[in-house]
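Collaborator request, handled under Task 6.
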Amino acid sequence: MSDRPEPPVVPVVKVDWYRSLTGWYPLARSLPLAWRSTWLIPALVGVLLTNQAWELGGQLFSEPVAYWGSIGPQDFDVRNTLNTGYLGVWRQWLTPFSNVMGTGAYNGGTWSWTKAATISFGSICSLLIWSAIGGWIARRSVVELGTRSTEEWGATWKVVRSRWISFTLALLSPLFIILTLLSGVWVIGAIAKLGTIGATISAILMIPALLLLFPITRVAMNWALGLPLLFSAVATEKKADGFEGFSRGFAYISQAPVPMLIAVAIAHIISLVGETALYYGIATTWSFIAGTYVWGAGTANTESLGLLTSEKMPIWMIAGNNAAFYLSRAFCFSFFFTASTAIYLIMRNTVDQTDIDEVDLLETVPPQELPEAKTSETKTAESKTADPKPAPTTSESSPAQEGNPPTSTDAST
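Structure tokens returned to the collaborator:
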């Protein structure tokens, strides 16, 4: 036996950088996900549908409203960093409500039923559209970023279909609260139509009504600041509803505002880089495609084919000329929901100490039933139903037929 001491056992420690960085790595992974065609195409459909919804609202109520839905995507300008990228989409979500300050009595403007109807119609259509499309992108993003796996299309569709109402309520429930509080103010304003007495009563009632500034402002700020996290909360948590999505969004921001600000700043910088690269990449590629086509068709036939005049330009040329513009805008929305999912995982890990891979996943394999436990009664029933042992037949030979002497009890005598 050797007297040499055994070498010490050194434990091998592996650092999981995916978790050690508190989820910041998933935020960087949001860019390649948002570039995917399965993310970009739904976002492009959402942008076009939202644009048409606002135009339809202006035609129905004869009150066009110059909001982002009615004027279409904004002009691409890298220098105007607040109107593009992650923050640009965040602002566009709040754009239908930003002009409300310009309709107050202090600047001579008044509200009208047609304008209110246009804003309500466009906003509700936008929420319904993006509750489905944004929920789809958020669900696929949370599975990719949280578990580093790809969810089946059918499973994603099942989750979005079952939680579509929750996505919508997460956005509408705060607005319903605000409208309920404002309805009392509207009634007070209607009293002022009753003449001098009505105006006096209305002025008196508006004094305590000023206290509504605090709850309305709080609800509006909770909704506006927690807007990016609403979809992700409903898409991530198990059996999440609209109220949970709204409450989680504001709770995480209020408890960890610094990580939220850092995450939003990083997401905005990444979105600007991604949007710029996608825009110029598609524009350059289309220039090569269009130039090659014109070269093959011949310069003399360019005018006859309508490639230089907008009146005769074929639809494929129109689509190609606008591809970089609209796809860059679609990327901003695609990245908004993808990066918001990554930010939600970061905030949940920071506040609740929950691992980023804890995501509600649907079971793709149906559970198998356990075999029935056997009791004494089932055992007795099985023994009775069992086949009896067959008796020997007459064809079998006896010991006497085989030549063996028969045995007897008194053979010894």
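The cover message to the collaborator said: "Residues 1 and 7 are 16 Å apart (CA to CA). Confidence is low (pLDDT under 50) at residues 68-74, 103-108, 394-403, 407-413. Please let us know whether this matches your experimental observations."
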